[in-house]
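Hey,

Quick one before I head out. I ran the complex with glutamine overnight. Inputs first:
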Amino acid sequence: MSIQFKTIKDLLTMLKNKDISNKELVKDTYSLIKSNVHLNAFVTLNEEMSLKKAEELDKNKSSGNLAGIPIAQKDLFCTKDLRTTCGSKMLSNFIPPYSATVIENLENAGCISIGKTNMDEFAMGSSNETSFYGNVANPWGSNLVPGGSSGGSAAAVAAGIVSAATGTDTGGSIRQPASLCGITGLKPTYGRISRWGMIAFASSLDQAGPMARTAEDCAIMLNEMCSHDLRDTTSLDEEIPDFTSDLSTSIKGLKIGIVKEFDLSMLDNSVAQVFEESKKHYESLGAEFVEISLPNISLSVPTYYVVAPAECSSNLSRFDGVKFGKRCENPQNLEDLYIRTRSEGFGDEVKRRILIGSYVLSAGFYDAYYKKAQQVRRLIKNDFDNAFKKVDTIMTPTTRGAAFSSGSKGDDPIQMYLEDLFTIPANLAGLPALSIPNGMVDGKPIGLQLIGNFLQESKLLQIAHNFQISSDWHLKTPSGDIN
Ligand code: GLN
């Protein structure tokens, strides 16, 4: 029985019924990885260890809720004894001595970390074209980008290689590639999942989350990914519910907010049409639509592009040729060591962010840029607080359009930054948000975004699951020949 395009739930049933052994499942997964090498979705494979773990599971009675499930891990999570590059030349030789909490949690649940997925360098990008390890192709068309920065994870799930993958989302990096590849992806509330062992990009925005074919699988993954972690001071000490328990509860009477300030004319035509159809679909499920106002929302992208580079310039200062990763050859003195290590180790987009970040944090400009951006961030958060007095969730398109051609936005960083127009606000406010496939445009999938109030992941997953049990957009599989 083929394992391609199976969900976690399917695979757990197959393993339980002994339709497949753990070892066969792992072997079949590597066969799929190999027949899809053109996607360049993986940077490092973990074949030997994975087979060993599967054999052990076959011998001993398997334990853990996800025992034997192969998971593709974004190459931003530290994995003990397994190379972790973060898509950068700087970390091309970095073998972490420990695993991130998320990895530990998933492995404790029995998951098999099958390999590390390609990504934009240090998670900076929206198209997976900034990785030192090459571009990732979208399974729907080899000339299309998969989105970024979790593009390798999204491509691996969309191609049906794995049922689920981990991603991280600082300004949209789970939801935007989920939309462009036709899968489901959730960015939880800031602090829901520990950031310990995640290579930091912008610490006040970064959040890990699940990427899978269905909302139900995202809930199953989330159950294992969350924990209160004393090693991360921003990790929330909140009750962790069973995220699967309310999935099928009806959403009749639920209030969905539509943002007045998002003008649908800024979307590609057919995206607006698909969005309207999804509204009708939710109406047929008994939901009510309410117009809400987020007056400062148009300031989200500029605010993000001050805050994120500022934090990145500080976080990435540790990559200096002394503490981690690569060091330049034959440094003449300490300054030469720093300059050449960083010049050689980082790509253009990372350097651009470090320069912007250092500038907005510098003594003369801090008040004008960084402090101002933090003030605007608070206003955006207040806007959401007000909106959630009236509605249960806020619905927007995830992206302005479907997957674009590789190279088509490369020359203009601003165009690329606008890819995250709809996703960035949730990161600035720390709110949970997810993307589900809700239609096709020119044969390519697009996504619908649902933003929830603080800690309301269960409700978001319920709203998404209700959509998926009454539609089939999430079941579409790529033919690979679209341009
Ligand atoms: N595309 C955005 C950026 O380049 C968001 C990336 C992310 O969420 N990691 O910063």
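The mean pLDDT is 96.

Talk tomorrow,
K.
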